[in-house]
Specification:
161 residues; alpha+beta; ten-stranded antiparallel β-sheet; 3 helices; 12 strands
Length: 161
């Protein structure tokens, strides 16, 4: 009887862990499920969903480096370096923004404390181009949001092992 109880005590948490998406991997494949775009008339349109899905098969996002690769199902479009401005945890999203890379000719500079000093254009771009990855405690799926100047796409992600 003690063996059965011991097996159940170990097996139940293990089974529950296997059913939850795991963020131990820092590499995610994200797929758009819905999107809207801002039209010239100021109206949001769902026409962006089919256009987004036609052009992009998935976003492959490296949460540790900020490298984002976009694929269209047959080839990779990119990679593009994003800046991880916040690493997610059980109650906060991981947030990536498009900022110039210091190593590759970007205009940002380091101040005397070694922190990046961003131009107004850098901050304007960060405000319009962002990716949020949400995997909060108790969530069944890993969610993502991709914002650009006139398009907002949402979907799910899964770890790539």
């Amino acid at each position: 009887m003690k063996r059965i109880v011991a097996v159940l005590v170990l097996a139940i948490p293990l089974a529950m862990a296997l059913c939850m998406p795991v963020m131990s991997s820092t590499l995610l494949r994200c797929k758009a499920k819905d999107a809207v775009s801002l039209g010239d008339d100021g109206v949001l349109s769902r026409g962006a969903v089919s256009a987004t899905n036609r052009l992009v098969d998935s976003w492959i996002i490296d949460l540790s480096t900020g490298m984002v690769r976009i694929t269209d199902g047959t080839r990779e479009l990119g990679p593009v370096q994003w800046t991880v401005v916040r690493k997610g945890n059980k109650s906060n999203d991981t947030v990536l923004v498009r900022l110039p890379d210091l190593c590759c000719g970007g205009k940002s500079s380091l101040n005397s404390e070694g922190a990046k000093r961003f131009t107004r254009l850098d901050l304007a771009n960060a405000a319009t181009d962002s990716i949020r990855i949400r995997h909060w405690e108790g969530m069944k799926n890993i969610l993502f949001q991709k914002n650009s100047l006139s398009t907002f796409a949402t979907g799910t992600c899964r770890p790539i092992h």
